[in-house]
Specification:
heterodimer, A: 293 residues, alpha+beta, Jelly Rolls, B: 72 residues, 2 helices, 18% helix, globular
């Protein structure tokens, strides 16, 4: 319908953005504040989320598919209100030790330092099971919260071995995720006591999660597989490792992992919905990259 | 069978704290017999010209120290 602005009004909530529509889905080529749209989120305009772009710049990510996957991951984490709950997001994308080292949440913080035998590829980081690990430089005693904490690890490998996929400990408290040890998954969150559940396949996305002083749970592939009331005993003074356990009291024993990691994160405790949504976002990400399990 | 490179005590001291590529550090550890060893990944991926000699290390079977009971 013609009107005074000369372009015609679009119908409310329509899917076409030509003209001044209220709450329509497609704007016309500019940021919302400068557009003719009402409450429209501008879509269809080339460009990436600013946080995704910062990661591309720091890690020198140039591949179009990888950019699409990471950008969608950022958008999904933000739409699920997970972005603010994550201190470290390691997409393990780009195929090199440099690209895999960067923290998507903030490329200036908690960059991974790799040590020992690891192999980098488009499928992520293959830890060698001998002496390889990544130091996130995230120390829960200074960076974490004793009663609100999670760690995640996406394993592309199925093996049952005496290994820990991510974690760290001091003498009084520790955290880890062990995907499959003698057929069992183990989770420990800011304590010295585990929760565990039988697990026949170590492939998948694991989350160890604490949401209160006496509420802990373990997740696999978006399902809460075990929960408990283990009390927290402290925030370990130990930088969290990926691919091993930072065993500060006995650094000779680190339970080196032989699994391939295609995503990892560290952050505050997650609600059940948030934990399920984190898996959804990560699985979408890895599916786009053709490396989902 | 996993193989690893066997180090002397002096070689171990030289590698500690040193990069083998732009972002990755050598990590010598001891096996069950207290031999100092590094992984074949570190040997094969080494780009540090100061340590090209790692390619000449003798390879031995990896026998890890046993992991003590952990799970409570």
């Amino acid at each position: 319908m013609a009107n005074s602005n000369g372009w015609g009004d679009g119908a409310a909530n329509n899917t076409i953005g030509w003209g001044q529509g209220a709450n329509n889905a497609i704007g016309w080529g500019d940021i919302q504040a400068d557009s003719w749209a009402g409450l429209t989120d501008i879509t269809g305009v080339p460009g990436f989320d600013a946080d995704a772009q910062a990661f591309f710049t720091a890690a020198n990510i140039t591949d179009a598919t990888q950019k699409t996957a990471v950008n969608q991951l950022v958008l999904d984490l933000k739409s699920y209100s997970l972005w603010t709950k994550l201190d470290c997001i390691y997409p393990m994308v780009g195929g090199t030790s440099t690209t895999h080292s960067y923290n998507l949440k903030n490329t200036a913080t908690f960059q991974i330092t790799f040590n020992g035998g690891v192999t980098h590829s488009s499928n992520g980081v293959q830890f060698g099971g001998v002496n390889g690990y990544g130091n996130t430089n995230f120390n829960p005693s200074t960076n974490g919260s004793q009663n609100s904490h999670h760690q995640s690890f996406y394993s592309r490998t199925n093996v049952s071995a005496v290994e820990i996929e991510t974690g760290g400990t001091d003498a009084g408290s520790g955290s880890y995720v062990a995907a499959r040890l003698s057929g069992t998954s183990y989770f420990r969150l800011n304590t010295l006591t585990d929760i565990s559940i039988a697990n026949a396949n170590s492939q998948g996305f694991y989350i160890g999660n604490r949401t209160a002083s006496n509420v802990v749970n373990g997740w696999k592939n978006g399902t809460k597989v075990v929960s408990g009331t283990v009390a927290s005993t402290g925030n370990p003074n130990a930088s969290l490792f990926i691919g091993a356990w930072n065993n500060v009291p006995n650094p000779v024993i680190r339970y080196y992992s032989s699994k391939q990691c295609a995503f990892a994160s560290i952050g505050t405790g997650l609600t059940d919905t948030e934990a399920a949504n984190l898996r959804t976002a990560v699985q979408t990400f890895n599916t786009t990259l053709g490396r989902n399990v | 069978m996993i193989q690893v490179g066997l180090l002397t005590e002096t070689q171990k001291d030289e590698l500690i704290g040193q990069l083998y590529d732009s972002d990755s550090y050598f990590n010598p550890i001891q096996d069950i017999d207290d031999n100092w060893i590094i992984s074949t990944e570190e040997i094969e991926q080494n780009e540090n010209p100061n340590f090209t000699w790692v390619r000449d290390l003798p390879l031995i079977e990896f026998k890890p120290k046993p992991n003590p009971p952990l799970f409570i």
